Each structure stands twice: as structure tokens, then as C-alpha cells.
Amino acid sequence: MTEKTYPVPDRLNSLLVGGVLLAAIGLLWLGTRLPGAWILLPALGYSFVLLTNYALIHEATHSVLHSDPRRNHFYGMILGWLFPISFTVLRVTHIVHHCCNRTDHEMFDCYYAGDNRLIKYIQWYGLLLGLWWILIPIGTLLLAVVPRLLVSSPFRRARSTAVLFDDFGAHEIRWIRLEVLGGILFWITVFIALGLNWSLLAIYYACFAFNWSTRQYVTHAFTRRDVRDGALNLRVSPVMKWVLLNGHWDLVHHQHPHVSWYYLEELGRHSEAPVSYWRQYLRLWRGPRPCTEAGPAILPKTRYQEM
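and the corresponding C-alpha cells:
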């Protein structure tokens, strides 16, 4: 069976998009009506709803959220507003991730002898604690307003951002600006309609930032330095399978990046056996490790498209 025989589950994905939007708005509304510490309950729920939201945006970056390209982009855009991020920013940078996985540009879990260990530890634990999440909406705004800044010398010198912003041409910048403007109007409308306040949003997004960040590197840390196979399949609970939309099958995803989440478990039967999520997650808190192995070369985007 070839990858072309895996149809996108358009109807199911459309239902999930609608369900996530309704659940997120509902939890924001609920938070405005609860006193004191009770707000933490919907905030925690919101953090998990936005994990599914991110999983759906991720599908859109691979053009498998909907088989209609226009609807795929529209869904990705409105879901991106909840993150918040421009869908175009995530689509472009996520392809970079697939081409740079486990290269030196994404070697957060290890350090070479010449690296500054203090910076590596700050970078690593900042990632685990969710502190770097705020850089994503800030980076999106910078790309919309002053895109040349992110390809200036300081970003070129940093290993993690040296190639991250290379693929933003005039067409992408126009889309980013439209999506950012749409996101601002979306949040103004929601803010007024629901009677939100900044402290509520800070609590909600602090919960989400931590929850999301704990899962962003857990499938890649300490894996082989291979662009395609440098990932893990993880063993999670049945509930989390749906929350993550099979995102725990990340090795399978990297080997078949153009296949819908719906089929990853099926493909996983022919992949490496899943390892314990919690065992892998707790390993992360021991900190980055020294590395003596050279990283792989960046995968050309033409090769990624052929995978």
C-alpha cells in the first residue's frame, strides 16, 4: 500500500476543528465566571484542548487536515489564532524541522565540547518549563512587521535560528500579515464578547505553554542523529491518543510525513515499538548531555516532498 492510498478524513477533521473551537471558547467563557483558584480547572482543560488544536494545525502544515487546499489553509489559519501563531509561519518552519531534525540546528538535548554549557542548560530548561512559548507569538509579530530583522546577523549566528527563517519570501510575508491581522481582530472580538481579562489569559496560556512545551521535544531527545529516523514512538493512555491525535507516533510521522494522523497507529505496527512516555519525559529533566557524534546533513526540501 502506498501513501497515496491514505485519504484525508475530511469530515472527521472538520468536526474536530469545530469541536476544538467551541471547547476553547466555552472554557474561556467559563473562566470569566469562576471565582479565585477555581479558574485553574478550566485553564488546565484549555491547555489540553489546545494540544489537540496544535495537532490539527500540524496536520494542516502537511496539507492533510482537509483535502481541499483552500479549506486546509483556512482551518490552519483560524486554529493558529488560538495558539496564537500565523499558520504560514508554522507551516514554513515545520517543514524546516522535518529537514533539520537532529542536525546541529535542532540539537537542544546535547552539547559539543566547545559549546557554552550554561547557555545550553538555560535553553533546555527554558524549553521544558514553557518559557520559550512566548517567543513564538513575538516572532510571528516580528515577521509581520520587520521580517528582515529575523535574517539579520544575530539570528544568523545562532545555531538554532541560522536557517529557520530562510524560506519567507514576499508571498509568505503577505500571508503572515493577513493572518496576524485576522488573529488580532479575532482576539478583540473574543475579548469583548466574553468579557475576558488579561490575568485570566495569562493563567490559561501559562498552563498551555507548560503543557505544550513538555511534549515538543520528548519524542526527539537523545534519539539517533538522523533526520528521518531521529524520533520515538511513545506509549500513552487511550485518552491522550485522542488528545494528541496520534502525535505520540512521531517516528512513524517522520517516516511518513504526508500521511494523516488517522493512519499513524496502523503504520506503527511496522515501526519500532513505543517506549514509555513518562520514562522518556523524566529523562529530559536530567539535562542535556555531551555529544561526540557529528550531526546529519540537512535534508533538501525536494527529498522531503518525495518522502
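(Above: one complete record from the training split.) The chain has a mean pLDDT of 93.
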